[in-house]
Amino acid sequence: MMMWWWILIPVLLVMGVFLYNGRNRQNTEKIENPMDILDNRFAKGDISKEEYKEQKRTLNTKN
User: Are 25 and 33 in contact (CB under 8 A)?
Assistant: First the structure.
């Protein structure tokens, strides 16, 4: 009976670590650059073609 505890405890610890790491990976968000966000908004129809061109021109200008 005592032998099972020596096997069960490490197995539970390893499973806990894998579950914790998997949950952390799911919570990380992909960071998009401004052009990707602008392209997605235009593709979804959130902004018009004129707004898209104006914002794209603004993003492409270097200060």
Answer: no
Does the reported pTM lie above 0.70? no
> How far, rounded to the nearest angstrom, does the alpha carbon of residue 38 sit from its chain's CA centroid?
18
- Tens digit of each residue's pLDDT (9 = 90 or more) over 4-43: 778 888 999 998 888 887 665 655 566 778 999 999 999 9
- Alpha-carbon distance 22 to 40, whole Å? 28
34 near 59, Cβ under 8 Å?
yes
Residues 6+ apart with CB under 8 A from 49: 42
Q: How many CB atoms lie within 10 A of CB 38?
A: 19
pLDDT on residue 23: 65
Determine contact, residues 52/42, Cβ cutoff 8 Å: yes
**Side chain identity at 18, as an amino acid letter?**
F
